[in-house]
Amino acid sequence: MMIASEQTFLQPPEVVEAYQRRGYRQKETLGESLRRWAEAFKDHVALTDHRGEMSFAALDRRADRLAGGLHELGITAGDRVLLQLPNGANFVALSFALFRLGALLIFVLPAQRINDLDGLCRNAQPVAYVCKDRFLGFDYRAMGVELVARHACLRNIIVDGEARQCCNLDGLDGDPPTGVAPRPTEIACLLLSGGTTGTPKLIPRSHADYAYNARASAELCGFSSDTVYLTALPAAHNFTLACPGILGTLSCGGRIVMARTPGGDETFPLIARQKVTVTSLVAALVSLWLQQREWDDSDLSSLRLLQVGGARLSPEVARQIGPALALLWQSDGTM
């Protein structure tokens, strides 16, 4: 597998320079982007989850302190880290902390289990695994302990919740390291392919190209500081993270509302209460939402745009979305 120390640049320097001249790529990392957003939007609410609200400035500070704590654990530039957390502020803050360290995030969906992670450990040789203690009845700590027993590369299990013998995420707090400065052209994260042929493949994305992906998508979808984006799908999805998703919303000064699960029993009240304007779903969930709207009377009038990806909707289902939910935006199916 290609890692950062073997190939810093994903594209030839002349291509990178051409993209920068045309304004497609900014000369900043994703960690630096958050710093700029925090300076611009300060005390505006950046995200809301089941625990409460967090401002842009607070998110920036939390990312810095987490970066310091992770650095004290020995996580440095080029290290791979498996991140498997449900939707919440910790997912976002930890992602930016690792971006600032120059570590390579591997975003793992909450539904993925030992077979997928075993293959990822063999291929990517991560030094740490970050997980929830339990979520929807599954014990991620136990899976982490099993992974450590199988793979000598894993030095740390970091747990959000009851850590037991593992490292507690809430205890990670340190001064941000000095002299750590990843470059925009370096790899920021490794996205997972669909895994239809076995273990998911790793797709490298640089800071500059992933930021452009989110920013251009946000412009295309008309995002602004008034945007309230609901993360109904797992935040680890490329669709939810940067199409425009979390990164695109934050880049505009908008607000993220993070649902733990995508079902209407949780998301419909959130849309009504938080005045959500945009969300993203896969086609199968659209049908479930439409079925629930037959008896649900939540006020979804704030929702102006529903992005659908992963598969093309049938014309019959697509025609129902406007009257029942919102304006439809069908993606090209890539996630």
Automatic annotation (TrEMBL):
It is an enzyme of class 6 (ligase). Transmembrane segments: none annotated. It holds the Pfam family AMP-binding. InterPro entries: AMP-binding_CS, AMP-dep_synth/lig_dom, ATP-dep_AMP-bd_enzyme. SUPFAM superfamilies: Acetyl-CoA synthetase-like. The keyword Metal-binding does not apply. PANTHER family: LONG-CHAIN-FATTY-ACID--COA LIGASE, NONRIBOSOMAL PEPTIDE SYNTHASE PES1 (EUROFUNG)-RELATED. This is 2,3-dihydroxybenzoate-AMP ligase. It comes from Methylobacterium bullatum. The gene is dhbE.
